Amino acid sequence: MRKATSGNLPAETTSFIGRRRELAELRRQLASARLVTVVGPGGAGKSRLTARIASDLSRGFGHGAWLVQLADIREPALVANAFMAGLDLRDQTGMEPCALVLSHLRERQLLLVVDNCEHLLQAVAELISEILRAAPHVRVLATSREPLSVSGEHVVLVPPLELPAISEALARSRQNEAVMLFTERAAAATGGFELNADNQAAVIDICRRLDGLPLALELAAVRMRVLSVEQIRGRLGDRFNLLTTGSREALPRQQTLRNAMVWSHDLLTESERDLLRRLSVFAGRFTLEAVESVGGVAPTLEVLSALVDRSLVLKEESGPAACYRLHETVREFAALKLSEAGEQAEVETRCTRHYVAVCEQFALEARQELAQWLRRVDLEIDTIRAVLQRCLRAGDIATGLEVATSLGVYWITRATSEGTRWLDDLLEAGFDDSEATGWALMIRGFLAVLHADAVMARPVLARAIATARSSGPSTLLSCALAMAANAENMAGERAGARRFLEEAAVLAPELDDHPAMVGVLLARALDGLVREDVAAVRSAAMEGVRRAEAAGDLYTLATMWMNLGLADLIAGGAMAARPKLAAALRIAREIDDRVAQFNLLAALSHAAAMLGNAHQAARLLGAAESLRSAVGLSVNSIVSPMLIRGRAGAESALGRARFEADFKAGMELTRIEALLALGEPVRPQRTRAAGPGPALGGREAEVAHLVGAGLTNKEIGARLFISERTVETHVRNLLDKLGFSSRAQIAGWIAAPDG
User: Fold this and answer.
1) How many angstroms separate the CA atoms of 136 and 138, rounded?
2) In the prediction, which pLDDT does 445 show?
3) pLDDT tens-digit readout, 179-206
């Protein structure tokens, strides 16, 4: 079984050309230096170069190579969050993002690639300095337009590609890196371009005029779809003569890139120019729906497709629908054009309106389609952050609260610390007695409960209750009362918990509202677990399962199944607990709720120990600990005794040495392996029709597990370091071998419960 995770480097979609000297220098520097910064102008190919060397060196690091993308981050306060995202950590506890990153890296041996640092230099430099001090086995490879100025930093300058001589033999030109890049990208654009004696001079002139800058060469090459190489040469000459009005030798390379951008921009139609500049309002990835809402051009799809064809907009696969983004240099240029056109305020307003509508839709539909909606918000969270920041700066607190409260389930399952920060900033900027403020306080209190912070939760929820009372009985009041009961139980105030719970239990049925009813049922179940009243837990949780299944509410359903399993464990029924805990674990994996996954693995380890499966208990404990450390979680008072008993039982049965070996094996597994491979005992032996299930090869099993986790072929290829085409072959073989017709059936087969 594969152990340490290998990283998240993206698969290369186009060939890598040249840079032999730079690759050799980076390899030499990284052999001894712990921080190497690749410095060069925009468009010089820094990101591709670092991705290539990181891929080459990743196998030399026990925990692989991990990419942190900063191009879409605008606020220094979110730098640590970007590191968390790149390292596949989850902000679901009260631990500060920076502290969680440092804790995660402290014992790991990995290469950390930090891309596009130049606009966040101070914040990035501070965090990297802390990482280098705290994690002695981590090496950092950064890209920036200027050095980070961190102690111990080694700088590798990345110049543009070597320029061809004005007059040289054809064979020599074919070996020149700039010529090779232009020729290959032109061939990809046209399906048949070749360098020959007739076009050699034009290609050399283009490469020299563009200073060998890779991005500029790629933008020019893609124009071969509609222009000849001589036409590109002529148009570039006209544009550069017009813009520079001086010596070519004096032209800075950044000006060369800007001129190439202007030239490419001038070749666009009016609609294409309009859309390109308006796309700069998106801070990160965006969808076709967002473009249609914000772009203001028609037909949107055709215009967007034209920009993709010209390599000005990048298309990415992300689940069932495509998404798009701008290269950072293109975004900077487009933003300048937006400002020059006097459209910035108008387009930002359209963008805000769109994401207010998206977040409102999320609030309405997320319970029924939680996994899909969480992926959607993950995709567009950078622009949503930009919207929230604009609301704060403009004093539009009402809109900011609307967005932040609509994302309540997202903050709960994905980013509790970040949600806390946005809500605190918005509430501090403009508190009133409106219902919107009441909901913001309720969600803020919920996040404090998730952080096990009763000191914060109790006064915040008291304010939420007071705000709700001012407008009469409502769903808000019921939910706030139920959450306040949870906070009181957490603080050890049983009488206060009972008082709030009794009032909520009277109010909720009158409302006939799903959130109000499940809020009360969840609070009743927690109250029963605290008191070890098994009958009370079962009564509340069984009703909760019924309501959650009827409403399609996955988050509540997972929690209720977990509560039922915990009740069985309290009553000594490990065998009865297993299928309930397994059902909750499958849902927690589907929505990627890692706090729930930890609690469930801990409970399953206790069940395994009770049933005499000491090896399984030890490995589940190791897997749970790995998850706990990746989330920065403090163990709650209900799960803690189960961990202690599970460990004691397994260690007693195995002995210290064998227990530690199994525990370590569990810790070293990837998260998916921990949830699937270690979950074998709670899954039946697979069958197809009436016969035994087919045996899968090692690679087939890995692909099946990753399909079950919802990864696309491209993501699977990047994870396993195989081509996307190879992944497609494995998926087809799996479908044939299993007798299935869709990926969904593979995922269901992987996650099937006990029969």
Assistant:
1) 6
2) 96
3) 999 999 999 888 889 999 999 999 999 9
Task: Return the residue matching tokens 């300058």.
Answer: 157
Beta strands in 454-594 (DSSP E): none
CA distance 531 to 398: 41
Strand-pairing partners, residue 115, are: 69
The tens digit of pLDDT for each residue in 222-281 reads: 889 888 999 989 888 765 554 444 334 434 555 677 777 888 888 899 999 999 999 999
Instruction: Tell whether 371 is covered by a domain.
Output: no
**CB of 718 closer than 8 Å to CB of 8:** yes
Query: Which residue shows structure tokens 């209190």?
Result: 445
Q: Which helix (H) or strand (E) holds 389?
A: helix 370-394
Q: CA nearest 601: which of 545, 662, 682?
A: 682
Report the distance separating Cα 114 and Cα 124, nearest Å. 9
Separation of alpha carbons 529 and 211, rounded Å: 69
Locate tokens 């539009």: which residue?
396
For 649, the token pair is 């039982």
Domain C-terminal end among 233, 266, 299: 266
Q: Does 456 reside within a domain?
A: no
Helices (H), 571-670: 574-590, 594-610, 614-631, 640-654, 656-668
The stretches of 407-493 forming alpha helices (DSSP H) are 408-414, 416-429, 435-450, 454-469, 475-490
Same domain? 141 vs 238: no
- Is the domain of 121 the same as that of 240? no
Structure tokens at 311: 């390599």
Assign residue 120 the CATH number of its domain.
3.40.50.300
Beta partners for residue 317, in sequence order: 322
Cβ atoms of 334 and 370 within 8 Å: the answer is: no
* CA 268/CA 270 separation, integer angstroms: 6
148 and 40 co-located in one domain: yes
Q: Do 218 and 189 have their domain in common?
A: yes
pLDDT tens for 674-709 read 555 444 433 333 333 333 345 566 677 778 878 876
Helix (H, G, I), strand (E, B) or coil at 226: coil
Q: Are 525 and 509 in contact (CB under 8 A)?
A: no
> For the chain, how many helices (H) and strands (E)?
37, 9
DSSP 690: T
State the number of CA atoms in the 13 A half-sphere of 169 facing the CB: 3
Q: Give the structural domain span for 44.
A: 20-157
Number of domains in the chain: 4
Burial of 611 (0-12, 13-18, 19+ CB in 10 A): middle
Cα 290 to chain centroid distance, Å, stands at 19
Cβ atoms of 507 and 477 closer than 8 Å: yes
Retrieve residue 157's tokens.
């300058």
Strand partners, 457: none
- Torsional class of 43: left (φ above 0), alpha (ψ -120 to 50), beta (otherwise): left
Same domain, 540 and 660: yes
> In terms of domains, do 125 and 221 share one?
no
Asked whether residue 677 falls in the same domain as residue 691, the answer is: no
- Residue ranges of alpha helices (H) inside 20-73 are 20-30, 46-57
Going through 230-288 in order, the beta strands assigned E by DSSP cover none
Supply the DSSP symbol for 311. T
Contacts made by residues 500-505, CB under 8 angstroms, sequence distance 24+: 501/527, 504/478
